[in-house]
Amino acid sequence: MRERFRDPLTVTDIARRTPLGRFDFSRVFQEETGTSPRRFLEAVRIHEAKKLIDGTSSAIAEISAAVGFPGADAFTRSFTALVGMSPGRFRRLCRDEGEVPPGPEPGPYAPRGSVAGTVRLPRGHGNARVFLGAFATAVVQYPAVASAVVDVPSDRPSCYTLRDVPEGRWHLLAVAVAAGAGHDPRAVRTPLVAGDRATTVTVIAGEVTSAAVRLRPALPSDPPALLALPGLEPPAVFVPPPGCAAAAAATTAPAQERATVTRLRAVPAEPAPSRDRAVGPVGGPGRQGPEGDSLRHRS
User: Fold this and answer.
1) Could you tell me if 7 and 41 are in contact, meaning their C-beta atoms sit under 8 angstroms apart?
2) Helix ranges, the chain (H)
């Protein structure tokens, strides 16, 4: 899919390249990637389009054809639904022309809770700026029902909090760009993702669900991040935030890859302002923090 996204591929075409039938291939693919073959291919095409919109001056119709869409209208509809803004607005966002990343999708009121915990980097990487969000699918696509941006040092975990998460079951996903660990950390950038794409959290109104997240280097089987995000440039200097007692149960040993999920009682007190600055704003237009090649400036 990543090599032939321009071609008019079907699931049957792809399954023929494997020893599996179409049904078994789709089942195994879903288990391995967290999404269906059709949606994965669409994600690859939109991701490639994001890079072309950011890095070239090509017309949107030309980009649509270049990434395998049958027409500009279908491309614009798909791009807007998955990225959270139209191709033209995304280009203005990439060029710092007054656009801001999309916030959570407006919807009817629902009882809300929170998700809190720690996030840790894999060994051998420098500091990273991490986007975490709660999503309805296993792909980082619009909308996130809640999100946060957290700076994480190379040698210890940082705390995060997702507030005002609607009651229900959500995918907890994270993406980041880590600095190199050598003499020149700016020379190397490594895309990171949450260690387990299958991690889900159950949010109950008035309670805090605790989940520890460990990142790992992105793999070709990881769906591309589609949601328009702010820049994830790794921080040159990390300022340790205050501790987060409410999420203490979520801390994991360095060797663990799978997120640990528990539920805690709600913490009635609002966090101190300094903690807000360390964790980053959550869930508002232009305040959100998903691989890849295009996390350089805007993703």
Assistant:
1) no
2) 11-15, 22-33, 37-55, 60-66, 72-83, 87-94, 273-279
Alpha-carbon gap, residue 129 to 121, rounded angstroms: 10
**Angle at which helices 22-33 and 37-55 pack, to 10 degrees?**
60
Region of 278 (left: φ > 0; alpha: ψ -120 to 50; beta: rest) is alpha
Q: How far apart are CA 20 and CA 207, in angstroms?
A: 44
3-class state of residue 292 by DSSP: helix
Token readout for 205 is 């109104």
Token duo for residue 226:
């589609």
Q: How far is CA 224 from the centre of its chain?
A: 9
* Percent of the chain with pLDDT strictly greater than 70: 76
Tell how strand 128-135 and strand 189-194 pair up: unpaired
Total residue count of the chain as it appears in this document: 299
**Residue 244 has what pLDDT?**
54
CB contact set of 204 (below 8 Å; sequence gap of 6+): 113, 167, 263
Average pLDDT along the chain: 80
Cα–Cα distance between 66 and 63 in angstroms, integer? 5
Q: Which residues pair with 173 in a beta bridge?
A: 133
β-pairing, 112-120 vs 200-203, is unpaired
Banded model confidence at residue 90, pLDDT cuts 50, 70, 90: very high
State how far the Cα of 175 lies from the Cα of 181, in Å rounded to an integer.
19
Backbone angle region of 34, left / alpha / beta, with phi > 0 → left and psi within -120 to 50 → alpha:
left
Q: Which of 278, 280, 214, 288 is nearest to 243 (CA)?
A: 278
Three-class DSSP category at 2:
coil
SS3 (DSSP) at 30: helix
In this predicted structure, what is the pLDDT of residue 262? 53
